[in-house]
Amino acid sequence: MKKKLSIFAASIFMLTLFTQCQLFKVKVLHKGKVITVSKNAADTHVAHGDEIISGIYKQDDGTLIELPYIPE
Fold first, then answer.
1. Rounded distance, CA 47 to CA 43, Å?
2. Sheet architecture: strand order including 33-38
3. Interatomic CA distance for residues 10 and 62, integer angstroms
4. How far are the Cα atoms of 5, 15, 29, 65, 69 from residue 35, in angstroms, in the given order?
5. Is 64:58 a contact under the CB 8 Å cutoff?
6. What angle do CA 34, 38, 11 make, to 5 degrees?
7. What pLDDT is stored for residue 28 in this prediction?
8. How many other C-beta atoms lie within 10 A of the C-beta of residue 54?
9. Which among 72, 64, 68, 40 has a CA at the least distance from the CA of 52?
10. Do residues 28 and 42 lie in contact, with contact meaning Cβ atoms separated by under 8 Å?
11. Under 8 Å CB-to-CB from 49, ≥6 apart: which residues?
């Protein structure tokens, strides 16, 4: 029961966090190297076989945080 509750709490936290953030950039595994690209370039990289690692989100106060990528 505790594990289910902690997963639920973490899910609520992430949903709250994502509603306060905007996707800014995306980290992509490109030809064996991690690169950071604009959110507009993410789909093109995926279409060529690259893998998205994470998203960089801009919070309301302007600070950047790295979180799991969720497509917009």
1. 6
2. 33-38, 21-30, 51-59, 64-67
3. 23
4. 36, 26, 6, 16, 14
5. yes
6. 80
7. 96
8. 15
9. 68
10. yes
11. none
Q: What tokens were used for 52?
A: 């998205």
Q: Which of 20, 6, 8 is nearest to 67 (CA)?
A: 20
Question: What are the pLDDT tens digits along the chain (72 aa)?
Answer: 455 545 555 554 554 555 567 888 999 999 999 999 998 999 999 999 999 999 999 888 888 989 888 776
15-27: b (≥16 Cβ within 10 Å) or e:
eeeeeebebebbb
**Residue 5 has which token pair?**
């509750």
